[in-house]
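Final report, results section. Input specification for complex C-07:
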Amino acid sequence: QYLERIQEVDPKVHAFLEITAERARFDASRIDELRSKGVLLPPLAGIPIAIKDNICTKGIRTTCSSRMLEAFIPPYESTVTEKLWKAGAILLGKTNLDEFAMGSSTETSAFGATANPWNLTRVPGGSSGGSAAAVASEECVASLGSDTGGSIRQPAAFCGLVGLKPTYGRVSRWGLVAFASSLDQIGSFTHTVADAAELLHVIAGEDYKDATCLKVSVPNYQSILQKSISGLRIGLIKECFDPNGLDPQVASAVNKAASHLESLGCELVEISCPQFNYGIATYYIIAPSEASANLARYDGMKYGYRAEGVENLATITSQSRAQGFGSEVQRRILIGTYALSAGYVDAYYKKAQQVRTLIRRDFDAAFAKVDVLLTPTVPSTAFLAGAHTDDPLQMYLSDLLTIPANLAGLPAINIPCGFDDTGLPIGMQLIGNVLEESRILQVAHHYE
Ligand code: GLN
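Structure output:
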């Protein structure tokens, strides 16, 4: 049924880069067979899932939507997908993204843009736009994405979905193609909070293959969802409601959602996080710096694209990178290399790390007063395709409200909370303290 749905709508939406129909039919029939024998099935048996194409799947092309990896077939499986297949989930295909997950609209993909299923003239958000569009258009039940600065929550907001970015280290990054290693985290797109809780339970947990993956037990999120939220304190970050740059329709939907939570017994508290406004500037030093180091591996030698007809060794690398990477990726590498160079590293990279600590302290102070924080997820609803393609700074502003949670490593979730007058979804963001996914899932579940 889902494969038919993909045939029907994906020519218009273009959520998928590759559809693994044969494997899906084979895996599904095996599950049917086990079921008919009365075998006890694992928790996700038969659930059709799509995976962002920067998460390695053994034997299946993983391109990062880049010419650089157009022909790359990973010889190993990522930890998250290994866990999904063990739990019985079925892979339907790999989804489109901004090249190397750098972007907010899925327009920097080397293989064509993805459209927003709610209105095909709009972007689905990014960088996990394909994963979001696939769930929103009912081409799969759930999908995985990655979130470095908002790439799950922002497209979830634009596509009317639940989008969860877990705590940094909650989920293994083994097999996720690295963009900015201190910020990257894998998470999910689903229609409901209960589904997000179920998926997190499957993909979370320690992994010796990822040294930053936390060695802590994974709670049963599902059983926590029902617990009462009466008496919980919800902090509204006042800097995130600054009318300057915030669509009034978004502000009003999120304020309405806050009042609803109040009517469910929560206490609303106004919180100030003055360093928040430096989030974007800080992120656009740290993320490109880490990216410039991570992307050094694509040298045209070991694997990935190699330029043809090149005469000497030195130009193999420069030509392969010039031809294999798109302009946004090249821009990030240039910014990062500059920010890390001798003479500038203290002024830019070190300074950014110091501000990162200050942002983290704002959160610490906030969580001394409240249980969860509430903000809009994005200052606007989904913008028109092409609207910001020539204006990177405008594109970067889309992540104004999502970036701070990545800089501090905190869990955060997007929950749909209404529509604008053109019928486009609006999302709100709940941010929790370190490893407190349960809390944000619980509040989100009661709101839903
Ligand atoms: N839009 C942000 C960027 O371009 C975040 C991307 C992400 O979270 N992968 O870097």
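The longest strand covers residues 412-419. The first helix runs from residue 2 to 13. This concludes the modelling results for the funded period.
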